[in-house]
Amino acid sequence: MSGTLLEINDLAVSFSTQGGEVQAVRGVSFAVGPGETVAIVGESGCGKSVTAQSIMRLIPEPPGRIKHGSIHLHGKDLASLTEKQMRNVRGKQIGMIFQDPMTSLNPTLTVGDQLTEGILTHEKMSQREANKEAIELLHLVGIANPDERLKQYPHQFSGGMRQRLMIAMALMCKPELLIADEPTTALDVTIQAQIIDLFKEIQEKTGVAIIIITHDLGVVAQIADRINVMYAGEIVEYGTVKEIFYQPEHPYTRGLLTSVPRLDGDRSQPLIPIVGTPPDLFAPPVGCAFTSRCKYAMKVCQAHDPEVTELSEQHYTKCWLQDDRVEKPY
Amino acid sequence: MAKKLVEVRNLKKHFEVGKGKILKAVNDISFDVYEGETLGLVGESGCGKSTTGKTIIRLYRATSGEVRFHGDDVHQISGKNMKDFNRKMQMIFQDPYASLNPRMKVEDIIAEGMDIHGLFKGKERQRRVFELLETVGLNKEHASRFPHEFSGGQRQRIGIARALAVNPEFIIADEPISALDVSIQAQVVNLLKDLQKKHGLTYLFIAHDLSMVKHISDRIGVMYLGAMMELAESEDLYDEPLHPYTKALLSSIPLPDPEVEETRQRTILTGDVPSPIDPPSGCPFRTRCPEAMDVCAEKKPQWLEVRPKHYVACHLFEPESQ
Q1: Which of B23, B67, B74, B101 sits 20 to 30 Å CA-CA off A44?
Q2: Which residues on chain A are in Cβ contact (under 8 Å) with B153?
Q3: Distance of CA B137 to the CA centre of its chain
Q4: Contact status of B275 with chain A (Cβ, < 8 Å)
């Protein structure tokens, strides 16, 4: 990895609601190098989307608030930029792709208008030149007859094609980082396979770094270089894709891996689910947030938050089982 | 093999969608469900798998064809027999948020079926509700609460308890875990498996997640654009898929194993699923099929048992084209 593109340090994001403060993200740190793919994996409500939206500063403030922490892109702290300064980053330096291609496109504008809106804002360029760029990108994302397609409206595209449009749109200003929030969740599996391949192809051709947010471990295994496993607003384990799949250390990571059946697996092997449900982030537990669902929980887990342990150069976990005084059960 | 519980014969369900157009959601499918088994039904969105489930349980009237339950055509049942049929066949729905009445207490949601069928009354009714709550991994304190007080996984358990309340024989589970988180999915699937063992239930398990369907099902049917493409025992379907669509579907599912993924050869289909309003002539899959031949556009392939218990509808396996 040559240098760092994005570095997030101790990021905490909260939302104030009538019921009190929801601590959606509670001290998240990770880095993304140029051209690499980092996945954020976790279940609904774990804070993975809020983390991504904070990078783009898309959290509505209020009720949201970045409580502390920094988000450095090329050494510049995004968390302290004004809204106006941030506009030069969004779309230009960082592109974003949302989960639902059906609702993230404007149904009343032609695809051409939507594709070129960003580049016309950021660059001094005529509509004609912008259209030329757009046609090139539609070509890149595998949309046939791009000249004709530019004049069409989103409803004339299928779900998979709309996701291709979203990807083209995010790439228009040649960003260095692409954030994809559950980009294949709304798609059928044969279309998902096409889109994953497209991501890989684009990365090869443009060298863009990707942060992909997903709950699908299969997708992660196909596309990611490194993985952050999030639980209750924190990163509980972080490592290369192989470390996470073959040497998972945190009981939550291990639980996630045993609760999904494998297509090539043995049907007689029962799934080992994680019992219980995630904690309430209005009042997160004092100790480790996973304690109530963890089969290895000890007294210390309830009372004290574990420290981050470095297992190898790029493999970290936040768990009391790593403490020298504990005899590990697995 | 066990007795046939449900027989589906040449079932069609067409919807009129205006301007004289017809959407052929289910177009001439036939299969059996045996007592005590789990039959999985997979396919991509719009393939007709949910419509098939809903037509079997008579939430939709069939356009033509029959569904036999214990030998009786469910679309001809009337009067008292209907009530009996309704009790024996139950359904679990996909969306645990939309399928529970927000204004009813959990107790009354679960007992509604029992009340209609006059099964348990007075103290018995409450005892039965408590017992059902425990069966699905909730507790009796939950009986007096409302649906909004529960998480998605817990709500799906309430939906399962409601289906079980009337002692059914056959349960149609329509995407019962799609709306749930990964760690919760395994909880619900294990629960369904345990209940099947304990009560000898038969399931039709409808889902798009082939890994999970393979895990829970004894046999699997693969649907595409309203037609059944292939039906076989789970291991068979995975080890030796015959239909090019099944092969492509299996190969597009990512495995949670990075080393396998690095070297895996995959067939990625091009294009999208055609519209069911104007489906291709002949075989519905021919427009995306890597092995399509001329005959595929001309004739609809027959539904043949090409190996014991392994059915497929594809011209590649028809005697004259081999």
Answers
A1: B101
A2: 277
A3: 24
A4: no
Residues A244-270: tens digit of each pLDDT: 999 999 999 999 999 988 888 888 888
Under DSSP, is residue B140 helix (H, G, I), strand (E, B) or coil? helix
Residues in B touching A273 (Cβ below 8 Å): 183-187, 190
Q: How far apart are CA A15 and CA A21, in angstroms?
A: 6
Query: Which helix (H) or strand (E) is A193 found in, with range?
Result: helix A189-206
Give the span between the Cα atoms of A208 and A34, in whole angstroms. Answer: 7
CA distance B209 to chain A (A): 9
- Can you tell me the ipTM of this complex? 0.81
Q: What are the structural domain ranges in chain A?
A: 6-93+175-322
Amino acid at B87: R
**Closest residue on chain A to B217 (Cα):** A267
pLDDT of residue A2: 52
Quote the pLDDT of residue A36. Answer: 95
User: How many whole angstroms separate alpha carbon B137 and alpha carbon B190?
Assistant: 11
Fold that domain A6-93+175-322 belongs to in CATH: Rossmann fold (3.40.50)
Residue A183 DSSP symbol: T
* Ramachandran category for residue B226: left, alpha or beta (phi over 0 → left; psi -120 to 50 → alpha): left
Mean of all residue pLDDT scores within chain B = 91
Q: Which residue has the tokens 């995010």?
A: A170
A47's CB contacts (< 8 A; 6+ apart) are A13, A24, A25, A26, A28, A230, A232, A233, A234
Neighbours of B199 (CB within 10 A): 13
**Fold assignment, B4-321:** Rossmann fold (3.40.50)
**Chain A residues touching residue B154 (CB < 8 angstroms):** 277
Q: How far apart are CA A15 and CA B138, in angstroms?
A: 31
